[in-house]
Amino acid sequence: MKNSFKTEIDGTLFEFHTMNVQRLQLFQVYVLHENEKLRFHMQIDAEGRFKITDPSVCPDKYVQMESALHDAIMEYAKEDEAFLNAKERTT
Predict the structure, then answer these.
(1) How far is residue 29's CA from residue 52's CA, in Å, rounded to a whole number?
(2) Is the separation of the CB atoms in 18 and 11 below 8 Å?
(3) Residue 81 · residue 89 · CB < 8 Å
(4) Which phi and psi angles does 53 have, rounded to 5°?
(5) Beta bridge partners of residue 36, listed in sequence order
(6) In sequence order, what are the beta bridge partners of 15?
(7) N or C: which end of the chain has fewer CB within 10 A?
């Protein structure tokens, strides 16, 4: 599993760093906000959705993107799984 990935959503670049290399569970998310690097956390909930752990420290415009951020993590998971499956077939 890769430890990090970047994606752009609505013109904003987000950088995700996984906090668990064994499974997708918790991410530190970095974004440039008003010329400062901002960090917030996203964690998987009981329903299998990645949620911002403390919306009060996250600007509202990113809280509103929570579903798109979840989708980005799930897309990363699919791509990483495909990579791992391809690697297993060649070894």
Answers:
(1) 9
(2) no
(3) no
(4) -70, -30
(5) 33
(6) 6, 30
(7) C
DSSP string, 24-69: S-EEEEEEEETTEEEEEEEEE-TTS-EEES-GGGS-HHHHTTHHHH
Total Cβ atoms within 10 A of residue 91: 5
Residue-level length of the chain: 91
Q: φ, ψ for residue 47 (rounded to 5)?
A: -90, 5
The rounded distance, in Å, linking the Cα atoms of 86 and 58 is 37
For the chain, which ranges sit under pLDDT 50?
83-84, 86-91
Spatial separation of the C-alpha atoms in residues 8 and 3, rounded to whole Å: 18
Please name every residue paired with 44 in a beta bridge, in sequence order, or none if there are none: 50
Q: What is the pLDDT of residue 31?
A: 97
Q: What integer pLDDT is reported at residue 83 of this predicted model?
A: 44
Helix/strand/coil for 18: strand
The amino acid sitting at 20 is: N
In this prediction, residue 81 carries a pLDDT of 65
